[in-house]
Design goal:
Blueprint: H1 29-48, H2 124-137, H3 142-155, H4 192-207, H5 210-220
Helix pairs in contact: 2-3, 2-4, 3-5, 4-5
């Protein structure tokens, strides 16, 4: 055969054609995030809420024990011991009886300090005459006698049986009580001389002289 003048050009590479495959579209990120958040919340609530809260209301619900019961252990003590029990004793006594009520003793009314003077006729003149001699015998002068006259004239009027109903004073010097004058003589109730001697002794011991007693009587109303 004859020579072909036409040279075949090299063929271009053929690109294989892949079959079109439809892929599923991926889910959005927002729904996936929400699902994960809700799942986490659910897990937390399961751990917080008591899983037995609904079951414990049933009378037949029982929680299984964590530990297995074992037989109790016993210990044998070789030596024995004694325990002594003592009981305290006591005595019951009756309360003391109540004290008896106080006895009320009615006191008799006190007797009046005033006593009825004896039946005697006073003689102020003779009483003053006796007192003048007694004053001079003690070494006092007429001035002291004048004070004595003024003092006993105020107290008793120089009456041997003068008595004070309110105080019980008696006699010319108005001794209180009148029985004090018994130290000068037993006839102190009727004898003016006995009363004067006692009165001058009282004045000497307390005021020093009749004028001292008269000054006190003028100032205080008593001597």
């Amino acid at each position: 055969m004859g020579r072909h003048s036409n040279v075949l050009a090299p063929l271009a590479p053929v690109t294989p054609v892949r079959a079109a495959v439809s892929r599923p579209r991926s889910r959005g990120r927002i729904p996936l995030f929400c699902f994960g958040f809700l799942a986490a919340i659910g897990i937390m609530l399961v751990n917080v809420v008591d899983p037995y809260s609904g079951a414990t209301a049933s009378p037949y619900f029982q929680i299984a024990p964590r530990f297995q019961a074992h037989e109790a252990q016993s210990v044998v003590v070789a030596s024995g011991y004694e325990h002594t029990v003592t009981r305290e004793t006591y005595t019951v006594t009756d309360p003391p009886p109540p004290p008896p009520p106080p006895v009320v003793v009615e006191e008799e009314p006190a007797a009046s300090v005033f006593r009825v003077p004896p039946s005697v006729v006073p003689d102020p003149g003779s009483a003053q005459e006796y007192a003048h001699g007694a004053v001079m015998a003690r070494g006092w002068g007429e001035d002291e006698f004048s004070c004595l006259v003024a003092l006993w004239s105020k107290e008793s009027g120089w009456r041997v049986n003068a008595g004070n109903e309110s105080s019980g004073a008696y006699g010319i010097p108005q001794a209180l009580p009148g029985s004090k004058m018994a130290t000068a003589g037993p006839d102190w109730e009727t004898n003016a001389g006995t009363q004067i001697e006692w009165g001058l002794g009282y004045i000497t011991g307390r005021y020093g002289s009749p004028c001292g007693a008269w000054a006190h009587s003028e100032a205080e109303g008593w001597y």
